From TrEMBL:
Its main location: membrane. It comes from the Eukaryota. The chain crosses the membrane at residues 105-136, 216-235, 241-260. It is a multi-pass membrane protein. GO terms for molecular function: transferase activity, transferring alkyl or aryl (other than methyl) groups. This is UbiA prenyltransferase. It is found in: Membrane. InterPro entries: Prenyltransferase_related, UbiA_prenyltransferase. One of its GO terms (cellular component) is membrane.
């Protein structure tokens, strides 16, 4: 009989690789949204907005939604094939869970996600993420073409950001247009650079016949596209917030490092590190407001 610790570890393994992609950066976004209410033109009543006490709720909301996305993706046969090559420690390729057990778990998780979103004030973002997850996984949106895949990733991370902000602000807050414009800008950043995640996963993506940008256009073009776009956004995002010249230094320095690295370090191990650096760079952009 499986112990409670066994089940907790299984849940942890489902989401482990997405901590750097989703949990940490989106928690940063939620904290910044809470502390930068002036920059986001937030209208809120004093009694509903008095401390950082909602940050744990932000983390819980992010975790529930991430878990649903992870199970929906990893339970599919082609995902198990890919993970056997790229991430054999995940619950299904390591035989900790069967695909049918994962399906049953998802049946319980999805209503819980909506309930948590409803209680915390971000049910619309939770529903949007469920729809995007269905398009990405069950309808094969991730395999359709690289442009659609990038757009789905950008929309997904953007709704994580919006939901994190909604939970941080509370149900009585009324955000201005600024927050939506900033999230749309970040969506453009993500959609034009997130192909960097496909560089370390080329063999797994080839095994499942996924039409990623590196497999269609080749390694060199992807690296140049990431390098140029990362440099552009590293300058544009501080400009967007009208920051002082010193405010450009962190994003430009980090972005330049990523751009040079992705062009010079060309192997799967180095690409995995570059992908992690990209996640940290996004977290840095989230701090700009």
């Amino acid at each position: 009989k499986r112990s409670m610790g066994y089940h907790f570890r299984t849940i942890w393994l489902f989401a482990k690789s997405d901590l750097k992609t989703v949990v940490f950066p989106q928690t940063i976004f939620g904290c910044v949204a809470l502390l930068s209410r002036g920059a986001f033109q937030l209208h809120v009543t004093a009694e509903s907005f008095n401390s950082l006490s909602r940050i744990p709720l932000v983390i819980v909301w992010i975790w529930f939604n991430l878990l649903g996305e992870a199970i929906a993706n990893q339970r599919l046969p082609e995902s198990i094939i890919e993970d056997t090559i790229n991430k054999p420690w995940r619950p299904l390729p390591s035989k900790r869970l069967t695909p049918d057990e994962a399906r049953h778990l998802l049946l319980w998780i999805l209503p819980a996600i909506y309930l948590v979103g409803r209680i915390f004030g971000a049910s619309d973002s939770s529903v949007a993420l469920m729809v995007l997850s269905y398009m990405y996984n069950d309808l094969g949106g991730a395999n359709e073409n690289w442009l659609f895949r990038n757009a789905l990733n950008a929309c997904g991370l953007s709704f994580f950001s919006l939901g994190a902000a909604q939970v941080a602000w509370g149900p009585r807050a009324t955000p201005g247009k600024t927050v939506y414009a900033w999230i749309a800008t970040l969506a453009a950043v993500i959609s034009s650079t997130i192909q960097v995640q496909d560089l370390p996963d080329i063999e797994g993506d080839r095994a499942r016949s996924r039409k990623t940008m590196p497999l269609i256009y080749g390694d060199i073009l992807v690296r140049w596209s990431v390098g140029i776009a990362t440099l552009f956004w590293s300058f544009y995002c501080p400009y967007y917030w009208s920051l002082h010249l010193l405010g450009y230094i962190p994003s430009v320095f980090f972005g330049s490092f990523i751009a040079v690295r992705v062009l010079l370090e060309r192997n799967s191990e180095a690409d995995a590190v570059t992908w992690k650096l990209w996640c940290a760079w996004m977290g840095l952009l989230y701090l700009l407001p």
